[in-house]
Structures are given as structure tokens and as C-alpha cells.
Structure prediction request, 463 residues.
Amino acid sequence: MARRMQRTLDVPIRQELLDYLSMVFKGKNKISHKGVPLKIDYCVYLFYLLETLEAKSFGNINYESRDIHIHSAKLRKEFHSNYNGYIQFIVDHKFLLKTAKYKVGSNTNIYQFTDVYPSSNQYMEYTIWDSTLLKKVNSNNSNKTEDARIRIKHASKIRPHLTKHFNEYLNIDYQSCLELMADMRPIQYRSNFITLFNFHEKRWEFSNNQETDNRLHTLLTRLNKKFLKHITYKNESLAEVDIKTSQPLFLFSVLNAIFSRKDYTGFYYKIQEKLGNEVIQEILKTGINTDELKRFGDVILNHDLYDYIAENLIIEQANGEYLRFEFDPVKNFKEKVHYKSMRDLTKKAVMETLYSSSKNYNSEVQQIKNLFLSVFKIVDLLKTIMKEKNSFPIFLQQIEAEVLLDEVGKHILKHKPDIVLFSKHDSLITTSADVNFLKTEMEDHLKKYLLIDKVKIEMSHWN
Prediction:
């Protein structure tokens, strides 16, 4: 028997915003704005959708982005054919502003909520009854659009061992998390609230793009770290095992596999699949200082890379803080950033060295390159060969994801089929009862697969 469409859908909306809409609609279900008929159900759902998009942007980068990326084709398909009339209504009421930014080659328009947007932290649940809207946003009684269901199905097919435990047994203490949010600023509050609400309501989301980082993105990866201690699975707290200095470790492992000519291993075949034989030959032709590569590996595996680099960096200091110039993608210019910790500054500088253009002449970037000249000569070679923007970082992220999530994750499942397993970037997560098993198996298999003597991993209990 076919599954019937759910008759209603509850979405969160700020009480202040709903009161405003009720005033504008004058208690009616429909109004006309600039000749365009609008329904209040659609307006409420669009505000929920916009806050969800902002939360995704806020949670996926290192700065507090307020950007809301709107894809016209998706809105037309998943919301309303005349979505622009609803967007214009929100813009005209001064709640939303289209920014001057533009993504070349994309149908994405970028908006931001204005300072006029309600800042009250009081949310209520609004029930959507409109049957036409529900057909689009509640496909197959799933609280999801059809495209979202397809993304979830795709991710679940590729990595079922990491998605199957997003079910009724995974819970979060909603009220305790809300208390932790009490002092948050408006953008922090709404971004955290929307993710928390969806988690609490078990509106699970999975996405996995094999053309980009190939990581598994879920509500768990976007959830605020402060909330993790309030998550349980079958009333048991969770624990995490993560790889320390993950990206530099995988860089060393790739170079070590190539220059040690261990071309018969599964890891080498994965590198070969990603880079191709021609690129590998270019790397071999460029060559590397073997003593330097060993030192690079030794610092990563047996010492602390960030402490080692920090000891060798010359950094401006003022009033007990450490200063460096950084590009702010929101403001679109460089500014001097203050760090209370030299280690935090070093981490940021190392990531910039790995991920930025080979033509980045920032002082700290150049100092880091000089510590491992032949290593970063190959990094810059790969950045030049991989001409598409961010291709080298994507290569490292794909290697990390496929080794940890697929190779290690499936190995663990093979040895303990009933284990509860989740992922979060460079870490695997399980119940407190199984975390010691996870740590041992993860460490042993990484060493065998990467053909290295040691892997630095860290175990942490969320509660």
C-alpha cells in the first residue's frame, strides 16, 4: 500500500517574526504583494529554509558567515515556481538583503539577514497545512524535499555503516542545549537553534559529494561542540577517536608511499587513482630530500608539528598576544588578527600553507615552507598541476575521508558488526562502551594501511 503524505509539518519560527507576519496578513491566509499572491504557510516555511541555509554556511567554515546561498532552480522545484515573489516580499520588509557577492559560473545568489531581522530567541512551532507546499517539502512523508531524500539515499548507499544508526535511539537533551545557548548572539543563536531543532526532531540529513571532499556531512558534523555531551544512543553517552594533525599526516603518508616505491599496496593504488601515473612521475622527477621527509614524518608522528613550527616562527607580539595578517573573506581584505595562543596562530598558518595558492607570499607561510623546502616544493607542484581552485586541498580531504571512513570504518565493522558508528571529519564516534575497541582497531589498521610505524590518535568521552 502506498504511503500517504503527512497532512501537516511543524517548523520553528521566531515568535516575534510570526507576530509580524500575522499583522501583515491581517489574520488571513493569503495576501497580494506587488500583484503576486502570497500564502502565510509559504512565508513561514521560507524563513525556516533561509535560517537552515544560513546555519549550514555558519557551521561549515572557520569564520561567522551570514551568507545564505540561494539556488534558483532548487527553490523553484522544491518551494514555489514563483519563489522570487516571496524573496522580494522578505526583501521589501527589510529582513533580507542581496549582497554584492557573485559566484562565477553558478546560479547561486547570496543573501544575508539584515540587522532588522528579529533577534528574539523565542521560537515556537508553526504547523503547515497547505497541501501543495507539503507535496514539495514533505516528500513521501519524510519531512524532506525529493532532492534531499535523493541525497540521503545516495549517502546511505555509499556509507551505510555510518548512517544506519541515525534512528530513534539517537537522542539529545534538547532543554539542556537550549540553556547553553542563552547568552549567544542572534546569528549564533539562530544557526545553532535550527541545527539543534532538526536533530531533536530526528530530521536526519546526510550528504556526500564524491567530486569534492567526499566526507560525510550530517547534522552531527554541524552540531555545536557544547551540545555533544548531551547526546546519547540507547541512553549511553558517546565518545570520539580522532587523528591528530590529520592533514599533515596524510601529506606525509602520500609522499612516503610514493618515494618509498611501495607501489604494490592498497594505499599506493588509491594515490595512483587520484593523481594518475603522469603526476606521480612528475613528483618523482622533482625529487625530495629523504632526510627532510623523515624529519617531517618524525615531527608529525613522534613529536608535535605545531609546537615544532611555533618554535621556529618569527611572529609580531603586542600586549601578550600574537599577531599576523589574514585575509577576511567576509570583508574581502587583509587585516591584522590577534591570537592569545601561539599554537592557535601556528595551526591557522599551517592550514593556510597547505590550502592557499602556491603564490601566497605571507610571511608565516614562507617561513613554514622554508622549514621543509622539498616537501612544500612538491605541494606547490601539485597545486600548479591541479589548476582548478582548491583541487589540492580536496585531494588531501578525499584521501583522508576514503581511508578513515571507508577503509578503517568498514574494517572495524567487519570485526564488530554490531558496533554503533558515526563520523565527524577526521574522527570516528561510537558508544563509551566500545570506544577502547575503536581506538585500538583504528590505530592498528591505519598503521598497516598507511605503512607507517605510528599514528597519533586521541580519544575523548563526550560526557
